């Protein structure tokens, strides 16, 4: 778990992907690798997600790949089988979190209230998702909520982009930010992988500037 967390922190940004056609998976993976962020959260919001995860984990073993929008135990199983190294869910579902802990796969449940954070801390989690970040109060809310939990770190996602990334990453309790701005579905579907690579490079350059 700890080395996986180190990787997440080093990336600083985790691209959050909604993929509609698994045939795009390897081009997407290549663009992310070329752009300097060999990692992704593939959301289980589409039929193609499992197959895309399988292709990416098989053909790009150097990537850190996880599954997002995981809402059921069956999806946890499918994600692990497809090569996911971490599980993300938009909210705190104790059944999913406990199942992931049983299966020994790192899990980042969404926590936007102190009551949810308590549940995560009780289970020994070191990093939680903060989703939807901008709508749920942004960095001010994270700062206020994190004060009592000195060891807990956050992965804000939702409404984060190149213009507000720096603000989030400047706070020490942000492990990494999640975001779709460099991997928008429109870019994937129209085959603009060169643009995905360029936006990924720009995102990584911002991380490097802030965390030098
Ligand atoms: O549902 C949203 C995704 O999880 C990421 O949010 P975003 O598209 O605002 O970056
Ligand atoms: C928001 C997010 O990361 C998820 O759907 O799991």
UniProtKB/TrEMBL annotation:
Signal sequence annotation: none
Pathway where it operates: Carbohydrate acid metabolism; 2-dehydro-3-deoxy-D-gluconate degradation; D-glyceraldehyde 3-phosphate and pyruvate from 2-dehydro-3-deoxy-D-gluconate: step 2/2
InterPro entries linked: Aldlse_KDPG_KHG, Aldolase_TIM, KDPG/KHG_AS_1, KDPG/KHG_AS_2
PROSITE patterns named in the record: ALDOLASE_KDPG_KHG_1, ALDOLASE_KDPG_KHG_2
Superkingdom of origin: Bacteria
One Pfam family here: Aldolase
The EC number(s) this enzyme carries: 4.1.2.14
Keywords from the UniProt entry: Carbohydrate metabolism, Lyase, Schiff base
GO terms, molecular function: 2-dehydro-3-deoxy-phosphogluconate aldolase activity
Reactions performed catalytically: 2-dehydro-3-deoxy-6-phospho-D-gluconate = D-glyceraldehyde 3-phosphate + pyruvate
Similarity comment: family membership: Belongs to the KHG/KDPG aldolase family.
Subunit-level organization: Homotrimer.
This protein's name: 2-dehydro-3-deoxy-phosphogluconate aldolase
Organism per entry: Anaerosacchariphilus polymeriproducens
């Amino acid at each position: 778990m700890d080395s996986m967390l180190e990787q997440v922190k080093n990336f600083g940004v985790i691209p959050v992907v909604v993929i509609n056609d698994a045939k795009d998976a390897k081009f997407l993976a290549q663009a992310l690798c070329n752009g300097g962020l060999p990692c992704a959260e593939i959301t289980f919001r589409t039929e193609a997600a499992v197959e895309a995860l399988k292709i990416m984990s098989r053909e790009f073993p150097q990537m850190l790949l996880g599954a997002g929008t995981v809402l059921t135990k069956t999806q946890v199983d499918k994600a692990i089988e497809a090569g996911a190294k971490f599980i993300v869910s938009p909210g705190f579902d104790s059944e999913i979190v406990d199942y992931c802990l049983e299966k020994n796969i790192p899990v980042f449940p969404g926590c936007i209230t102190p009551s949810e954070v308590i549940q995560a801390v009780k289970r020994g989690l070191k990093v939680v998702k903060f989703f939807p970040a901008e709508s749920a109060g942004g960095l001010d809310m994270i700062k206020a909520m994190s004060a009592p939990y000195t060891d807990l770190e956050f992965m804000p996602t939702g409404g984060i982009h190149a213009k507000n990334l720096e603000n989030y990453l400047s706070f020490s309790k942000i492990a990494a930010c999640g975001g779709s701005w460099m991997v928008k579905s429109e870019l994937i579907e129209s085959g603009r992988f060169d643009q995905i690579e360029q936006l990924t490079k720009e995102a990584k350059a911002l991380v490097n500037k802030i965390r030098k």
